[in-house]
Amino acid sequence: MFGGRTSSVPHLALLLLLKAATSLAQAIPDFPVILNTTFPLTLAVQPSCGPLTSQRFTEINTGIISLDKIRTTVAFGDSWTDNGSNGTVPIPPMMWPPVPEAGSAKNPAQTRASNGFVWVEIFANTLSAKLLDYAIGGAVIDNFAYTSTNPNNILGHPQASFVDQASLFFLQGKFLDALVPSQTLYTVAFGINDHNQAAIAGGNWDRAFNSYVAKLGELQAAGARNILIHGMFQSFPDTDRLQDRVFGYLRDSKAQNGTNFAFVNLEKLFTAIKQDPASFGYRGSPTCLRSSVTTVGGCNDPDHSVFWIPGHPSQVTHRLISQYTQAVLKNCTV
Known about the structure:
One of its GO terms (molecular function) is hydrolase activity, acting on ester bonds. InterPro entries: GDSL, SGNH_hydro_sf. This is Carbohydrate esterase family 16 protein. Residues 1-25 form the signal peptide. By secondary structure, the chain is of the alpha/beta class. The chain has one domain (58-90, 116-331): Rossmann fold, CATH 3.40.50.1110. The strands form 3 sheets. Strands 1-8-7-6-2-5 form a 6-stranded mixed sheet, with helices on both faces. Strands 3-4 form a two-stranded antiparallel sheet. Strands 9-10 form a two-stranded antiparallel ribbon. β9 and β10 (312-313) form a beta hairpin. It has 9 helices and 10 strands.
C-alpha cells in the first residue's frame, strides 16, 4: 500500500498549472521598466506672436490667467493629450516591454501613446495644478462630420470625439473639482484625426466647425473663462481653415464676453525641429520605434528621438511641447 507507484495525476495537474503560469508570464511582463528620464533637449525656437485682429490663426495669449494662478487644467483632445485617465486618476507611466505604451500592463485604454508623461501632464505638474484629462486616442471633433465615422453609415466606425468628451466632463467634472473659473484652464487639441478621417471618405467641415465651437460655447456657459487651443503640428488646407474659423470665434468671444484664450501653433515648433533637429538636441532616427504595437527592434536612445511610435511624440518631445506652450502664454500676451 505504502510502497505502491505514486499516481501521475498530481504531476500532470502540476505541469498544466506551471504551463498556464508560464504563458501568463509571457503575456504580461513581471516587472515594469522605468526609462531614463534625462532631458537632453533645448527649446531652440520661440513663438511667432500675432495680433488679436489677425484674420488667420496666430500665436497669442489674450489674457489667460498667469501660470502661477492655474490650479486646475481640464484637457480635451486625441492621443497626443491622452493619458489614459478619462478624467480620473491616471496609471503612472511605467513601461511594460514589449508593450510600447506607458501606463497599465493589462488595460490598453489606460495607457499613453508615448514612453512617458504626455505634454499636458508635464504642463500641469510644472504648475502644481490638478489635471482632469478627457482626451482619448483617435478622437475627432464630431463623428457625424465624417463618412468613415458616421454612426448612420453602415460602414462607419465611430471614434471618440470632442462631443463625447465634453458630455462626460459635464456629467462628472463638477464632482471631481471645484473648477473655480479664475483658477481653471481648459485645453483643446483636435485636427489630426479629423484630417485623416476626412481623407478616407470625405467629410463636412462646416459640421466639424459648428460642433467644435458649440462645445466651446457650452464650456463657456458652464464657467470656462480661460481656453487654450493647440493647433496642428502639420499644415493642411482643411485643418488650417478650421483653425482660422475657431480663432475667429474665440476672437469674437473675447470681444463679446471677455473670454480669455490662447492659441499655440505646434506647426511652428515641429517645422523648426524638422529643419534643424540638432539645434534642439535630437540625433539618430526621428522615430524610435518601427511599429506602434511593439518595442522590439526599436532604438536604444529614445531621449534623442522626436517621435516614440510613428506620429506620436517621445516623452522628451512632450516636454518640449509643454515648454513651447508656456512660452506662448508668457511671451504672446496682448
